[in-house]
Here is the input.
Amino acid sequence: MTKHTMPEKHDLLSRNRSHISQAPHRRGSIDPSKLLPMDKTAHIGGHDNFNVLFIGAGNIMFGSPEGPWNHSFRLEHKLGPRLKVVALIDPSTERAKEVLAKKRDSFVVSAYQDTRVCSNLEEFVKTMTPNELPRAVIIGSPPMFRGTLQPNRDIEAQLLKQFPGVALFVEKPIATGSLSEIEQTYKVGKMIDNSKTICSVGYMLRYLKAVQMMKKIIHDNQLTVMCTIARYACAYEAIAKPDWWDKSKSYGPVIEQGTHFCDLSRYFGGEVDLSSVVAHSIEWNEAPGKLSKMSIDESKIPPERRIPRATTATWKYQNGAVGNFTHVVALQGNNYSCELEVYADGYSLKLVNPYVQPVLYIRQPGDDNETKMAFPDDDPFFSEISVFIDNIEAKDNADFEDLHILSSYEDAARSYELTWAIRNASEKNDTKSKAV
Ligand SMILES: NC(=O)c1ccc[n+]([C@@H]2O[C@H](COP(=O)([O-])OP(=O)(O)OC[C@H]3O[C@@H](n4cnc5c(N)ncnc54)[C@H](O)[C@@H]3O)[C@@H](O)[C@H]2O)c1
Here is the structure.
Protein backbone atom coordinates (compact mmCIF):
# COMPACT_ATOMS: atom_id res chain seq x y z
CA MET A 1 0.00 0.00 0.00
CA THR A 2 1.26 3.43 -0.77
CA LYS A 3 0.10 6.64 0.80
CA HIS A 4 -0.35 8.18 -2.65
CA THR A 5 -3.37 8.19 -4.82
CA MET A 6 -1.92 7.45 -8.20
CA PRO A 7 -3.81 9.22 -10.94
CA GLU A 8 -3.38 7.65 -14.36
CA LYS A 9 -1.93 9.97 -16.97
CA HIS A 10 -5.33 10.37 -18.59
CA ASP A 11 -6.86 11.20 -15.18
CA LEU A 12 -4.55 14.13 -14.78
CA LEU A 13 -5.23 15.29 -18.30
CA SER A 14 -8.98 14.88 -18.16
CA ARG A 15 -9.14 16.66 -14.81
CA ASN A 16 -7.43 19.55 -16.46
CA ARG A 17 -10.01 19.67 -19.22
CA SER A 18 -12.91 19.42 -16.83
CA HIS A 19 -14.63 22.62 -15.88
CA ILE A 20 -16.26 21.05 -12.87
CA SER A 21 -14.15 21.05 -9.76
CA GLN A 22 -14.40 18.01 -7.52
CA ALA A 23 -11.70 19.27 -5.19
CA PRO A 24 -12.60 20.81 -1.87
CA HIS A 25 -12.06 24.55 -1.57
CA ARG A 26 -8.38 24.97 -0.78
CA ARG A 27 -6.98 28.11 0.78
CA GLY A 28 -4.23 29.73 -1.20
CA SER A 29 -5.02 28.00 -4.45
CA ILE A 30 -7.61 28.04 -7.21
CA ASP A 31 -9.10 25.19 -9.19
CA PRO A 32 -7.13 25.51 -12.47
CA SER A 33 -10.27 24.95 -14.54
CA LYS A 34 -11.62 28.26 -13.20
CA LEU A 35 -8.76 30.31 -14.64
CA LEU A 36 -10.10 31.37 -18.02
CA PRO A 37 -8.27 33.44 -20.61
CA MET A 38 -9.55 36.91 -21.37
CA ASP A 39 -11.12 36.02 -24.71
CA LYS A 40 -13.12 33.18 -23.14
CA THR A 41 -14.80 35.42 -20.57
CA ALA A 42 -17.34 38.18 -20.77
CA HIS A 43 -16.72 41.34 -18.82
CA ILE A 44 -18.21 41.49 -15.37
CA GLY A 45 -21.96 42.17 -15.06
CA GLY A 46 -23.61 45.24 -13.58
CA HIS A 47 -24.13 48.78 -14.78
CA ASP A 48 -22.67 51.09 -12.16
CA ASN A 49 -19.34 52.74 -12.73
CA PHE A 50 -16.34 50.97 -11.27
CA ASN A 51 -13.89 53.71 -10.32
CA VAL A 52 -10.21 52.83 -10.40
CA LEU A 53 -7.26 54.98 -9.41
CA PHE A 54 -3.94 54.33 -11.18
CA ILE A 55 -0.65 55.13 -9.48
CA GLY A 56 2.16 55.16 -12.04
CA ALA A 57 1.87 55.66 -15.80
CA GLY A 58 4.65 53.25 -16.72
CA ASN A 59 5.14 49.92 -18.41
CA ILE A 60 3.28 47.73 -15.94
CA MET A 61 0.18 49.89 -16.27
CA PHE A 62 0.18 50.56 -20.01
CA GLY A 63 2.43 47.87 -21.51
CA SER A 64 5.87 47.78 -23.09
CA PRO A 65 7.59 45.78 -25.82
CA GLU A 66 9.61 43.97 -23.13
CA GLY A 67 6.73 41.73 -22.05
CA PRO A 68 3.01 40.96 -21.86
CA TRP A 69 2.24 43.07 -18.77
CA ASN A 70 -0.37 45.82 -19.11
CA HIS A 71 -2.84 46.21 -16.25
CA SER A 72 -5.00 48.84 -17.98
CA PHE A 73 -5.68 46.42 -20.85
CA ARG A 74 -6.77 43.62 -18.50
CA LEU A 75 -8.95 45.98 -16.45
CA GLU A 76 -10.65 47.20 -19.62
CA HIS A 77 -11.57 43.61 -20.47
CA LYS A 78 -12.61 42.66 -16.96
CA LEU A 79 -14.77 45.70 -16.28
CA GLY A 80 -15.91 46.59 -19.80
CA PRO A 81 -17.87 49.84 -19.99
CA ARG A 82 -18.05 50.03 -16.18
CA LEU A 83 -14.36 50.95 -15.92
CA LYS A 84 -13.75 54.59 -15.08
CA VAL A 85 -10.15 55.52 -14.38
CA VAL A 86 -10.72 58.52 -12.15
CA ALA A 87 -7.11 59.67 -12.02
CA LEU A 88 -3.63 58.75 -13.13
CA ILE A 89 -1.05 59.79 -10.56
CA ASP A 90 2.52 60.19 -11.76
CA PRO A 91 5.10 62.92 -11.07
CA SER A 92 5.95 62.61 -14.73
CA THR A 93 2.71 64.26 -15.84
CA GLU A 94 3.87 64.43 -19.46
CA ARG A 95 4.17 60.64 -19.61
CA ALA A 96 0.73 60.32 -18.02
CA LYS A 97 -0.82 62.70 -20.55
CA GLU A 98 0.78 60.81 -23.42
CA VAL A 99 -0.61 57.43 -22.42
CA LEU A 100 -4.03 58.96 -21.76
CA ALA A 101 -4.07 60.59 -25.18
CA LYS A 102 -3.57 57.15 -26.77
CA LYS A 103 -6.39 55.62 -24.73
CA ARG A 104 -8.73 58.48 -25.62
CA ASP A 105 -7.92 57.90 -29.24
CA SER A 106 -9.12 54.29 -29.01
CA PHE A 107 -12.36 52.36 -28.48
CA VAL A 108 -11.85 52.37 -24.69
CA VAL A 109 -12.25 56.15 -24.55
CA SER A 110 -15.18 55.90 -22.11
CA ALA A 111 -12.87 54.64 -19.35
CA TYR A 112 -10.44 57.51 -19.75
CA GLN A 113 -12.31 60.54 -21.01
CA ASP A 114 -12.58 62.10 -17.54
CA THR A 115 -9.31 60.74 -16.10
CA ARG A 116 -7.42 63.47 -14.30
CA VAL A 117 -3.64 63.61 -14.26
CA CYS A 118 -2.22 64.41 -10.82
CA SER A 119 1.41 64.56 -9.84
CA ASN A 120 0.75 63.05 -6.39
CA LEU A 121 -1.98 61.56 -4.21
CA GLU A 122 -2.43 64.73 -2.16
CA GLU A 123 -3.35 66.68 -5.29
CA PHE A 124 -5.99 64.08 -6.20
CA VAL A 125 -7.44 63.95 -2.67
CA LYS A 126 -7.73 67.74 -2.47
CA THR A 127 -9.61 67.99 -5.73
CA MET A 128 -11.60 64.75 -5.71
CA THR A 129 -15.39 64.91 -6.04
CA PRO A 130 -17.60 62.32 -4.26
CA ASN A 131 -18.29 60.71 -7.66
CA GLU A 132 -14.61 60.03 -8.09
CA LEU A 133 -14.14 57.93 -4.97
CA PRO A 134 -12.17 54.87 -6.14
CA ARG A 135 -13.24 51.27 -5.50
CA ALA A 136 -9.76 50.01 -6.31
CA VAL A 137 -6.28 51.46 -6.53
CA ILE A 138 -3.65 49.90 -8.78
CA ILE A 139 -0.18 50.76 -7.50
CA GLY A 140 2.43 50.48 -10.25
CA SER A 141 4.92 53.10 -9.14
CA PRO A 142 8.56 52.07 -8.66
CA PRO A 143 9.02 50.07 -5.44
CA MET A 144 11.41 52.62 -3.94
CA PHE A 145 8.36 54.88 -3.47
CA ARG A 146 6.30 52.42 -1.47
CA GLY A 147 6.35 49.71 1.18
CA THR A 148 7.64 51.87 4.08
CA LEU A 149 6.23 54.34 6.61
CA GLN A 150 8.50 57.18 5.52
CA PRO A 151 7.19 60.32 3.82
CA ASN A 152 6.87 59.91 0.03
CA ARG A 153 7.54 56.17 0.35
CA ASP A 154 4.34 55.32 2.21
CA ILE A 155 1.68 55.28 -0.48
CA GLU A 156 -0.14 52.29 1.05
CA ALA A 157 -0.47 54.02 4.45
CA GLN A 158 -1.62 57.20 2.72
CA LEU A 159 -4.25 55.29 0.75
CA LEU A 160 -5.49 53.42 3.85
CA LYS A 161 -5.92 56.77 5.58
CA GLN A 162 -7.57 58.63 2.69
CA PHE A 163 -9.65 55.76 1.32
CA PRO A 164 -10.36 53.28 4.12
CA GLY A 165 -11.74 49.99 2.82
CA VAL A 166 -10.71 50.67 -0.78
CA ALA A 167 -9.00 47.65 -2.34
CA LEU A 168 -5.31 47.79 -3.23
CA PHE A 169 -3.42 46.00 -5.96
CA VAL A 170 0.33 46.41 -5.40
CA GLU A 171 3.07 45.50 -7.85
CA LYS A 172 6.04 43.34 -6.91
CA PRO A 173 8.50 43.78 -5.35
CA ILE A 174 6.47 45.46 -2.65
CA ALA A 175 9.39 47.65 -1.63
CA THR A 176 13.00 48.38 -2.28
CA GLY A 177 15.35 50.02 0.17
CA SER A 178 17.78 48.90 2.79
CA LEU A 179 17.01 45.63 4.52
CA SER A 180 16.73 47.47 7.85
CA GLU A 181 13.48 48.97 6.55
CA ILE A 182 11.77 45.60 6.22
CA GLU A 183 10.15 45.98 9.64
CA GLN A 184 8.25 48.93 8.22
CA THR A 185 7.16 46.78 5.28
CA TYR A 186 5.75 44.18 7.67
CA LYS A 187 3.98 47.00 9.56
CA VAL A 188 2.37 48.10 6.31
CA GLY A 189 1.20 44.50 5.90
CA LYS A 190 -0.30 44.55 9.40
CA MET A 191 -2.09 47.82 8.69
CA ILE A 192 -3.61 46.29 5.56
CA ASP A 193 -4.63 43.12 7.43
CA ASN A 194 -6.01 44.94 10.47
CA SER A 195 -8.14 47.20 8.29
CA LYS A 196 -9.42 44.12 6.37
CA THR A 197 -8.55 45.83 3.11
CA ILE A 198 -8.64 43.59 0.07
CA CYS A 199 -5.08 43.54 -1.19
CA SER A 200 -3.40 41.59 -3.95
CA VAL A 201 0.28 41.65 -4.90
CA GLY A 202 1.38 41.20 -8.51
CA TYR A 203 3.07 37.81 -8.30
CA MET A 204 1.08 36.78 -11.34
CA LEU A 205 2.91 33.47 -11.93
CA ARG A 206 0.93 32.03 -9.01
CA TYR A 207 -2.15 32.44 -11.24
CA LEU A 208 -0.77 30.30 -14.06
CA LYS A 209 -3.04 27.34 -14.77
CA ALA A 210 0.07 25.16 -14.75
CA VAL A 211 1.02 26.37 -11.27
CA GLN A 212 -2.48 25.71 -10.00
CA MET A 213 -2.37 22.24 -11.58
CA MET A 214 0.84 21.60 -9.63
CA LYS A 215 -0.92 22.71 -6.45
CA LYS A 216 -3.85 20.44 -7.23
CA ILE A 217 -1.64 17.39 -7.75
CA ILE A 218 0.16 18.10 -4.48
CA HIS A 219 -3.12 18.58 -2.66
CA ASP A 220 -4.98 15.62 -4.21
CA ASN A 221 -2.09 13.25 -3.41
CA GLN A 222 -1.34 14.77 0.00
CA LEU A 223 2.29 15.28 -0.96
CA THR A 224 4.96 16.98 1.10
CA VAL A 225 7.34 18.97 -1.06
CA MET A 226 10.94 17.82 -0.54
CA CYS A 227 12.80 20.11 -2.87
CA THR A 228 12.31 23.10 -5.17
CA ILE A 229 14.74 23.97 -7.98
CA ALA A 230 14.11 27.30 -9.68
CA ARG A 231 16.02 28.72 -12.62
CA TYR A 232 15.34 32.15 -14.08
CA ALA A 233 17.41 33.12 -17.12
CA CYS A 234 16.41 36.48 -18.54
CA ALA A 235 16.98 37.74 -22.08
CA TYR A 236 19.16 40.70 -21.16
CA GLU A 237 19.42 42.11 -24.69
CA ALA A 238 15.76 43.17 -24.47
CA ILE A 239 16.19 44.97 -21.14
CA ALA A 240 16.72 48.57 -22.15
CA LYS A 241 15.85 50.30 -18.89
CA PRO A 242 19.08 51.75 -17.39
CA ASP A 243 17.67 51.58 -13.84
CA TRP A 244 17.37 47.80 -14.12
CA TRP A 245 21.14 47.54 -14.51
CA ASP A 246 21.84 49.80 -11.53
CA LYS A 247 21.76 48.20 -8.08
CA SER A 248 21.12 51.54 -6.39
CA LYS A 249 17.86 51.84 -8.40
CA SER A 250 16.57 48.29 -8.94
CA TYR A 251 18.37 46.70 -5.99
CA GLY A 252 19.62 44.05 -8.39
CA PRO A 253 18.06 41.36 -10.57
CA VAL A 254 17.21 38.92 -7.77
CA ILE A 255 15.19 41.52 -5.85
CA GLU A 256 13.65 43.08 -8.96
CA GLN A 257 13.07 40.08 -11.23
CA GLY A 258 14.16 36.79 -9.71
CA THR A 259 11.65 37.64 -6.98
CA HIS A 260 8.97 35.95 -9.11
CA PHE A 261 10.72 32.58 -8.79
CA CYS A 262 11.73 33.06 -5.17
CA ASP A 263 8.07 33.70 -4.53
CA LEU A 264 7.00 30.59 -6.48
CA SER A 265 9.58 28.55 -4.56
CA ARG A 266 8.00 29.70 -1.30
CA TYR A 267 4.53 29.05 -2.70
CA PHE A 268 5.47 25.37 -3.00
CA GLY A 269 8.15 24.91 -0.35
CA GLY A 270 6.73 27.03 2.46
CA GLU A 271 8.61 29.38 4.76
CA VAL A 272 12.36 29.60 4.34
CA ASP A 273 14.82 29.43 7.22
CA LEU A 274 16.54 32.67 6.23
CA SER A 275 19.62 31.91 8.32
CA SER A 276 20.29 28.90 6.06
CA VAL A 277 20.57 30.88 2.81
CA VAL A 278 23.93 30.44 1.05
CA ALA A 279 24.62 32.18 -2.26
CA HIS A 280 27.29 33.11 -4.80
CA SER A 281 27.34 35.52 -7.74
CA ILE A 282 29.37 36.23 -10.85
CA GLU A 283 30.02 39.96 -10.82
CA TRP A 284 30.13 42.22 -13.90
CA ASN A 285 33.94 42.38 -13.82
CA GLU A 286 34.62 38.65 -13.61
CA ALA A 287 35.55 36.85 -16.82
CA PRO A 288 32.38 34.69 -17.11
CA GLY A 289 30.27 37.81 -16.59
CA LYS A 290 31.18 39.62 -19.80
CA LEU A 291 28.10 40.52 -21.89
CA SER A 292 28.37 41.46 -25.56
CA LYS A 293 24.83 42.64 -26.35
CA MET A 294 23.75 45.00 -23.59
CA SER A 295 21.36 47.62 -24.91
CA ILE A 296 22.43 50.23 -22.35
CA ASP A 297 25.77 51.93 -21.79
CA GLU A 298 26.98 50.36 -18.56
CA SER A 299 29.98 52.69 -18.33
CA LYS A 300 27.51 55.36 -17.15
CA ILE A 301 26.77 53.27 -14.04
CA PRO A 302 29.43 53.50 -11.31
CA PRO A 303 31.22 50.11 -11.04
CA GLU A 304 30.04 49.38 -7.49
CA ARG A 305 26.42 49.77 -8.64
CA ARG A 306 26.58 47.34 -11.59
CA ILE A 307 24.57 44.16 -11.30
CA PRO A 308 25.80 40.56 -10.99
CA ARG A 309 25.45 38.34 -14.07
CA ALA A 310 24.46 35.18 -12.26
CA THR A 311 23.41 34.42 -8.71
CA THR A 312 22.88 30.98 -7.32
CA ALA A 313 21.46 30.19 -3.88
CA THR A 314 20.38 27.28 -1.72
CA TRP A 315 18.40 27.14 1.53
CA LYS A 316 16.42 24.98 3.94
CA TYR A 317 12.72 25.48 4.33
CA GLN A 318 11.51 25.63 7.91
CA ASN A 319 10.02 22.11 7.60
CA GLY A 320 13.39 20.69 6.51
CA ALA A 321 12.84 20.64 2.73
CA VAL A 322 15.51 22.25 0.55
CA GLY A 323 15.38 25.03 -2.06
CA ASN A 324 17.68 25.99 -4.89
CA PHE A 325 17.47 29.14 -7.03
CA THR A 326 19.58 30.51 -9.86
CA HIS A 327 19.13 33.81 -11.66
CA VAL A 328 21.13 34.34 -14.86
CA VAL A 329 21.63 37.42 -17.01
CA ALA A 330 22.94 35.60 -20.08
CA LEU A 331 20.41 35.13 -22.87
CA GLN A 332 19.94 37.38 -25.88
CA GLY A 333 16.84 37.79 -28.06
CA ASN A 334 13.53 38.26 -26.30
CA ASN A 335 12.30 35.11 -24.60
CA TYR A 336 13.31 34.21 -21.08
CA SER A 337 14.17 30.65 -20.11
CA CYS A 338 12.65 29.83 -16.75
CA GLU A 339 11.95 26.52 -15.06
CA LEU A 340 10.69 25.41 -11.69
CA GLU A 341 10.98 21.83 -10.49
CA VAL A 342 9.14 20.60 -7.44
CA TYR A 343 9.90 17.16 -5.99
CA ALA A 344 7.93 15.04 -3.54
CA ASP A 345 7.94 11.32 -2.75
CA GLY A 346 7.35 9.63 -6.11
CA TYR A 347 6.68 12.84 -8.00
CA SER A 348 8.42 15.50 -9.99
CA LEU A 349 6.49 18.49 -11.33
CA LYS A 350 8.46 20.57 -13.78
CA LEU A 351 7.13 23.92 -14.98
CA VAL A 352 8.80 25.10 -18.18
CA ASN A 353 8.51 28.38 -20.06
CA PRO A 354 5.93 30.05 -17.81
CA TYR A 355 6.22 33.45 -19.51
CA VAL A 356 5.69 32.32 -23.09
CA GLN A 357 4.01 28.88 -23.43
CA PRO A 358 3.72 27.19 -20.04
CA VAL A 359 4.27 23.44 -20.10
CA LEU A 360 4.13 21.09 -17.14
CA TYR A 361 6.04 17.79 -17.09
CA ILE A 362 4.71 15.37 -14.49
CA ARG A 363 6.36 12.20 -13.31
CA GLN A 364 4.39 10.11 -10.87
CA PRO A 365 4.61 6.71 -9.20
CA GLY A 366 4.15 3.77 -11.56
CA ASP A 367 5.69 5.42 -14.59
CA ASP A 368 9.30 6.33 -15.32
CA ASN A 369 8.23 8.62 -18.14
CA GLU A 370 6.97 12.17 -17.83
CA THR A 371 3.49 13.24 -18.87
CA LYS A 372 3.43 16.57 -20.69
CA MET A 373 0.61 19.04 -20.19
CA ALA A 374 0.55 22.25 -22.24
CA PHE A 375 -1.39 25.35 -21.22
CA PRO A 376 -1.70 27.44 -24.38
CA ASP A 377 -3.24 30.92 -24.25
CA ASP A 378 -3.02 31.22 -20.50
CA ASP A 379 -2.91 34.81 -19.25
CA PRO A 380 -1.91 35.05 -15.59
CA PHE A 381 -1.93 38.86 -15.77
CA PHE A 382 -5.61 38.70 -16.63
CA SER A 383 -6.32 36.06 -13.98
CA GLU A 384 -4.74 38.07 -11.16
CA ILE A 385 -6.70 41.20 -12.12
CA SER A 386 -9.87 39.17 -12.63
CA VAL A 387 -9.62 37.51 -9.21
CA PHE A 388 -8.86 40.87 -7.57
CA ILE A 389 -11.95 42.52 -9.09
CA ASP A 390 -14.14 39.50 -8.27
CA ASN A 391 -13.08 39.77 -4.63
CA ILE A 392 -14.11 43.43 -4.54
CA GLU A 393 -17.48 42.65 -6.11
CA ALA A 394 -17.98 39.72 -3.74
CA LYS A 395 -17.53 42.01 -0.74
CA ASP A 396 -20.74 43.82 -1.72
CA ASN A 397 -22.60 40.86 -3.19
CA ALA A 398 -22.90 37.64 -1.21
CA ASP A 399 -23.91 35.65 -4.32
CA PHE A 400 -20.77 36.53 -6.17
CA GLU A 401 -18.19 33.77 -6.33
CA ASP A 402 -14.79 34.95 -5.21
CA LEU A 403 -11.65 32.95 -5.89
CA HIS A 404 -8.74 33.28 -3.51
CA ILE A 405 -6.29 36.10 -3.93
CA LEU A 406 -3.05 34.15 -4.14
CA SER A 407 -0.53 36.73 -2.97
CA SER A 408 -1.19 38.79 0.16
CA TYR A 409 0.93 41.77 1.17
CA GLU A 410 2.36 40.00 4.21
CA ASP A 411 3.26 36.95 2.13
CA ALA A 412 4.89 39.15 -0.50
CA ALA A 413 6.95 40.78 2.26
CA ARG A 414 8.39 37.35 3.01
CA SER A 415 9.35 36.86 -0.63
CA TYR A 416 11.00 40.29 -0.59
CA GLU A 417 12.93 39.35 2.55
CA LEU A 418 14.10 36.09 0.92
CA THR A 419 15.46 37.97 -2.11
CA TRP A 420 17.37 40.30 0.21
CA ALA A 421 18.76 37.30 2.08
CA ILE A 422 20.01 35.88 -1.25
CA ARG A 423 21.58 39.17 -2.30
CA ASN A 424 23.25 39.63 1.08
CA ALA A 425 24.57 36.08 1.15
CA SER A 426 26.01 36.39 -2.37
CA GLU A 427 27.71 39.69 -1.55
CA LYS A 428 29.14 38.30 1.65
CA ASN A 429 30.69 35.41 -0.27
CA ASP A 430 31.89 37.51 -3.13
CA THR A 431 34.74 39.87 -2.29
CA LYS A 432 34.40 41.71 -5.61
CA SER A 433 30.91 43.07 -4.97
CA LYS A 434 29.74 45.71 -2.57
CA ALA A 435 26.28 46.26 -1.17
CA VAL A 436 24.90 49.52 -2.53
N1 LIG B 1 4.66 41.55 -12.66
C1 LIG B 1 5.46 41.81 -13.67
O1 LIG B 1 5.78 40.96 -14.48
C2 LIG B 1 5.97 43.21 -13.83
C3 LIG B 1 6.34 43.68 -15.09
C4 LIG B 1 6.78 45.00 -15.20
C5 LIG B 1 6.88 45.81 -14.07
N2 LIG B 1 6.54 45.30 -12.86
C6 LIG B 1 6.69 46.11 -11.64
O2 LIG B 1 5.90 47.29 -11.75
C7 LIG B 1 6.53 48.36 -11.06
C8 LIG B 1 6.68 49.53 -12.04
O3 LIG B 1 7.50 49.11 -13.11
P1 LIG B 1 7.39 49.77 -14.57
O4 LIG B 1 8.10 48.86 -15.49
O5 LIG B 1 5.99 50.15 -14.87
O6 LIG B 1 8.26 51.10 -14.35
P2 LIG B 1 8.30 52.37 -15.26
O7 LIG B 1 9.58 53.05 -14.97
O8 LIG B 1 7.97 52.03 -16.68
O9 LIG B 1 7.09 53.28 -14.72
C9 LIG B 1 7.02 53.75 -13.43
C10 LIG B 1 6.22 55.04 -13.46
O10 LIG B 1 6.01 55.43 -12.11
C11 LIG B 1 6.20 56.86 -12.06
N3 LIG B 1 6.50 57.25 -10.68
C12 LIG B 1 7.69 57.52 -10.11
N4 LIG B 1 7.50 57.86 -8.82
C13 LIG B 1 6.19 57.81 -8.58
C14 LIG B 1 5.40 58.09 -7.46
N5 LIG B 1 5.93 58.43 -6.29
N6 LIG B 1 4.06 57.96 -7.58
C15 LIG B 1 3.51 57.59 -8.75
N7 LIG B 1 4.23 57.32 -9.85
C16 LIG B 1 5.55 57.44 -9.76
C17 LIG B 1 7.31 57.13 -13.04
O11 LIG B 1 7.33 58.50 -13.43
C18 LIG B 1 6.94 56.18 -14.17
O12 LIG B 1 6.07 56.79 -15.10
C19 LIG B 1 7.85 47.80 -10.56
O13 LIG B 1 7.69 47.40 -9.24
C20 LIG B 1 8.10 46.59 -11.44
O14 LIG B 1 8.89 45.58 -10.82
C21 LIG B 1 6.07 44.05 -12.73
Notes: Residues 55-60, 67, 69, 89-92, 95, 140-143, 145, 171-172, 202, 204, 256 surround nicotinamide-adenine-dinucleotide (CB under 6 Å). The chain has 13 helices and 14 strands.
